[in-house]
C-alpha cells in the first residue's frame, strides 16, 4: 500500500519545480482555431488530455477550449469565487492537490498540497465574500470528515478545520452566506477501496460556515445510498445525488431534494429507469422548476419536474458529465467531448468539442 506520506513525497518531488516557477508556467493557449482563441470564456472544468495527462480547461460555450492549465493528476470538481475571477480545481479522491487559477487570464497559482495524513475528496466551495475556500478533506487512516478552511491568498494557508460531522464527505455547497451543506458519503476507504459498506452512515449535513457548528443532519432510509453530489435548486432546496453501494441488480432512487427542517424527498422513477443510471449521479443543476442530473456510469442524463418529482425524460449521452446553467438553459458536457444545450424541459441541440470533460464543470458568469 502506498502511504499518505509516500504520496506526499512523490507529489512534492513532481511539483517542486512547478511550484517555484512563474504563475503562468502551466498555461497552454489553445490556438486550434482563431474563433476559439477569441471566444468568450463560458465553461471551466477538469479534463483528460489526448496524451494521457490531465488539465483544467476554460472553453467557449460550444466547448471549444481557449486555454488549459496542466494538472499533476486527475481533477474532479471546480469552484468559482463569488465576485472575483478565481477558480479552484480539486484532485479526485483521495486527492493530494488543489489548483487555484484566474479563469480570465489563465494564470495559475502554485499548487497547494494536502496536509500530512490528509487527502482531498474532490470538491470545495468559496465563501460568499470570496475570501475563504472550504474544502472537503479526510483523515487518511480513518476517513473522518474535515472541512479545511483556507485563506484565499497565494500559498492558501489553512486557518481553520471543521470536524465531527461524519465519514467520507464529498461535495460541499453554500446554501446561503452563513450555511454550508455537505454530502457525507459515509464510506471509509483505503485508497478507493471501501472498507465499511455494511456499517456506512451517509447523511446530508448543514454547518455554520463561520464556526463549523452542526446545524442540521438528515438521512435516507437506505443506508447503502452514499450521498455525494449537491446543488442548490432555483427554489432554494438542496438537491443531492447518490451512489448506490448495494447489490448490482438492485434498483434504488438516486436523487433527492431537501428543504431545511423537513425530511429528504426522493425523486420518482421506476426500477428500470433508475437502473439506467448505473447506481451513480454526478452533476445536478436546476432551472425553471426542472432538475437535470447526469450519470457518466450510466451514459445518460435525466430530467425531473421538481414540484411533482416526476421523471420527464432520460436521454443517452456517452460519459455524461458536467452540467450548469447559462441564460435559462442547461449546458451539459461529456467525456466524449459532446456539449449539449438543453432548454427545459427537454429541447436539445449539440456540438462536438475536442475536450474529454471530467464529471463536473461550472458555467462562468457573464
Automatic annotation (TrEMBL):
SUPFAM superfamilies: Nitrous oxide reductase, N-terminal domain (SSF50974). It comes from the Bacteria. It holds the Pfam family DUF1513. Keywords: Signal. PROSITE patterns: PROKAR_LIPOPROTEIN, TAT. Its cofactor is Cu cation. InterPro entries: N2O_reductase_N, TAT_signal, UCP028101, WD40/YVTN_repeat-like_dom_sf. Residues 1-28 form the signal peptide. This is DUF1513 domain-containing protein. It comes from Photobacterium atrarenae.
